[in-house]
Amino acid sequence: MLLLLGSLWATQGFAQEGIQEALQQFQDGRYDRAATIFEKMLREEKASPDLYFNLGTCYLQDGRIGEARLAMEKGLRLAPGHKKLLHQLDLVKSRIDPQIEALPSFLLLHWFAGLRDRWPSSHWGYLMLVLIWLFSLLIFLRRAGIWTAPAALKYGLIGLAAFSSILYFSRNHAEHRHYGILLEGKPLRIAPEANSQVLLPLGAGSKTEIVDSLGGWYKVILENNDQGWIEKSSLTKVE
After folding, report:
1. Residue 9's CB: how many other CB atoms inside 10 A?
2. With contact defined as beta carbons under 8 Å apart, do 35 and 58 qualify?
3. Taking the mean position of all CA atoms in its chain, how far away is CA 125?
4. Pick the residue with more confidence: 169 or 8?
């Protein structure tokens, strides 16, 4: 409740009447009605991470795990590293049955991913261009005989530009990966056939990376690196 309240007042550009009504419905335990109001706001107004947070929180309180995760993941598409969304997403994951444990990441890779996800790819791209421009300016000043920059500054700019370019391309790749969320439990199968062997059951809210498509089936990879096939009608893409 406190998380929802804090985010509601942070949401800008939406009709205050709608916010007040959604808050009242939430406080009265009518989470489905509050969710309907936020869904309408998303259709009629510009989407925002806070609005997706509010919508996902209503879904979570209403027991709609798959829809709650979908809302959180869509919010994170807009604002990678959004702390409230990440915290609420952890709560959603804890409610998914069965649990699919993600592979543990190497410490440095975990740090890199956390840094990369603080900004969308466009921000890292702008930073890279600014650093390249500053380095070019230093070269121009040196050749014009106006000022010779210390070597440490020049090499530092080169290093930062290279690192920001790595962050840009990594974030851009992450943004263009195709993910799907199950809104209800479905089995992961060994082949794209309804009567093929079941590899494991998947609970509502399970997240999968879509890597291939065949007819009415997607080939997917789970967070623990298991691979299999699932019906397209079972997945809702995170756009």
Report:
1. 11
2. yes
3. 19
4. 169
Is 60 exceeded by the pLDDT of residue 227?
Answer: yes
Where residue 35 falls among pLDDT bands split at 50, 70, 90?
Answer: very high
DSSP for 38-50, written as a single string: HHHHHHHS---HH
Whole-angstrom distance, CA of residue 221 vs CA of residue 100: 11
Q: How far, CA to CA in Å, does 209 sit from each of 36, 113, 178?
A: 28, 17, 6
CA–CA separation, 111 vs 105, rounded Å?
A: 9
**Mean pLDDT, the chain, as a whole number?**
90
Q: Which residues pair with 229 in a beta bridge?
A: 189, 219
Residue 224 three-state SS: coil
Whether the full predicted model's pTM is greater than 0.90, yes or no, is: no
Q: Any idea what the Cα angle at residue 7 is, between residues 208 and 123, rounded to 5°?
A: 60
The closest alpha carbon to 87, from 8, 7, 28, 20, belongs to 7
The 10 Å CB-count burial string (b at 16+, else e) for 196-219 is eeebeebbbbbbbbbeeeeeebbb
- 64 φ, ψ (degrees, to nearest 5): -95, 80
- Note the pLDDT tens digit of each residue in 57-98: 999 999 999 999 999 999 998 888 888 999 999 999 999 999
CB contact at 8 A, 184 and 66: yes
